[in-house]
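Moderator note: this is an archived Q&A kept for reference. The question asked for a predicted structure of one protein chain; the sequence and the answer are reproduced below.
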Amino acid sequence: MSSPSPLPNPALPLLTRIFYRTLLLGFSAIFRTVLVLSRVFKRPAPGATPILTKSYPSAPHLKHRIYYPPTYTSSSAPLPLYLSMHGGGFVFGDASFDDTVNAKVCSDLNVLVISLDYPKAPAVTYPVPTQQVVATILSIFADDSLPFDRHRVAIGGYSAGGQIALSACLDPQLKGKIRAVTPFYPVTDFTINAAVRKDTRPYRYEGEVDDLLKLVPLFLYAYVPVGQDLRAPGLSPAFAVREELPEWICAVGAELDILANEAGAMMGRLAGKELVKVGETEGLGEQDRDGFEADGGRLKWVHVKGAGHGFTHMWGAASKHDPENAKKDADETYRIVGEWLFNGPFKIGK
């Protein structure tokens, strides 16, 4: 199959760039303030704090958070390792962002979880965060103090973190080291603009607006340098070929999310499925849209009905509208992904 022709990221008009930069500075200041206040006044959920934090020489300023399951002792066998990448549009957040969900995954699945931090846009742009994540993972593999099974390693992430997880897997230095990748509602195709994404998801009522629509152009400006090929697989994993990615891939999409269709389309291409027209782009056909498995279970698409972007963290309008069902959706999704991991990539001798 021939590679698609490059699609360079165009330069924005000067006034637009100034406007976006101002917005980013304002949002970043507000986000940092909220994060600090939440740490001061909001007590963490029991068991949600990591056992320790570590840095590595490749980036001493980045603090990675490590969670051991409650049942672990020094005499325990090496654990499966789950590397977790937080979201935040490539701009916001740090490794503490997902403390609650990472502690849950660690405890429920009995795995070692490491929440990786990475440098943020616009101070750095693609591919720097991916390169730093790869360097950190190589340091983790060389760290004998961490009690994990080097043959049972998976990486996952949420939203922008899902994109970085997929992107890191494409680096040849990690070939054979990462057995599985589990991106949750990831960004997978930077060639699709907000106007096209808008028509790829259903809406619950007339006039409903997706939370992400206004942010997508801002994050694109912050993260993707001018002239960068938007079809490069490291940036847009939708253009990656099967052989470049880990053997096991389980992607999670949320029905009420403008990113769900492109993630499903990526999984469909990897599985060799015929895609259909969805608005001005393409996506899975009706028989596969709500979930499928292929290649002996090595490829799995999980489509969560009624859920919105960030549902695992109770973010977004859909989760706030019905928090009880959002929590049920999150718990069930983690159960599905956990079973998939232990029936496949984490299964001893598989």
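Archived answer notes: The first helix runs from residue 14 to 41.
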